[in-house]
Amino acid sequence: MKTPDMKWIHTLVFVLFASVMTQAQSNYFAAYSHYQVIKNEREKIGKEVYEFRSNVTEMNLKILQFQIKKSIAVLEKEPNFNNDSTFKKAALNLFGYYLNVSTDQYARILKLVEDPELDNDEYRKQLDAIYKELSELGKPFDQAFFKEEEIFTQKYGIKIE
Known about the structure:
Elements: H1 4-54, H2 58-77, H3 86-103, H4 105-114, H5 120-155
Helix pairs in contact: 1-2, 2-3, 3-4, 3-5, 4-5
């Protein structure tokens, strides 16, 4: 038979456990929401990069640059999660890289496409050189972003989709 003190202790343990579980769940959803904001903005930029590379036009380049600037603004307004800014900073650095690429390398690609004097072999040679340059320049930004994404998602128990 339980004494009244035991019922009180069981009730207290249950309330504490429920409180801890509610706080953990709330923390998970807040972390997941933060992760989704960054992921969604990166996907929006990725879509516009794909559009530009598929159809190299001045309009598509302007749309890409607009999206990058808009995504940077969204992240700058996004509060840091639990005073942890490393994942967000890595995303902002990556987006900044995208903006720089859009004003330099992608603008050069646009000029190549529009150059009527360029023969196909020279066009391919120059285009390949720009893509190689993009790959080299982007590696540190990609690596830093994916490293911070992995740390963030592991820390908060988020499964990368």
